[in-house]
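Memo to structure team: turn this sequence into structure tokens by end of day. - J.P.
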Amino acid sequence: MNPETVAAQAAHHPDPATGAVAPPIYLSTTFERDPDGEYSRGFVYSRADNPNRRSLEHLLALLEGGDSG
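Reply from structure team:
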């Protein structure tokens, strides 16, 4: 597949929470904790990891033929 096709299609999965067909931009700097203090959704602080970063890392891995970004 052409790199342009991979780049255009890689991150386009509808958001299960909202149905958005393009990934939203997450502007939060911190994420909500569970009542027990854990971060079960996998995100703590946006500089460390966030949904946008994961999407970019996934796309770069696909474009470079790697397992992860």
